[in-house]
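Subgroup meeting minutes
Present: P.N., E.W., G.H.
Scribe: E.W.

1. P.N. recapped why we're keeping a running log of single-chain structure predictions: easier to compare across weeks, and new members can see raw inputs and outputs side by side.
2. G.H. added today's entry (99 aa).
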Amino acid sequence: MLKYAFVCVVLSVASSPVHAQDAASGEKIFNQCRACHQVGETAKNTVGPVLNGLIGRKAASHDGYSYSTALKSSGLTWDKATFADYIKDPKAKVPGMPG
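Output recorded in log:
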């Protein structure tokens, strides 16, 4: 699970270098995401889609999840900066996102 927590750390401190102690911080940060998203080999779509392989993936493209029209038509491809902007304020990044 730490390698997935690392991804969250990278996304939460996208412009800062990541250090070993950040993995624990990332796991703590990911606990907020865990309510809706899963990661790992056995991950399944729940309230939100699986986050495995998020970076480099087109928004609204994970199979088996029903995305909002706004996200489907956003044209976004997830990278660190795009995701960091999105998680700060999804409705500002993708107008029309449901609340």
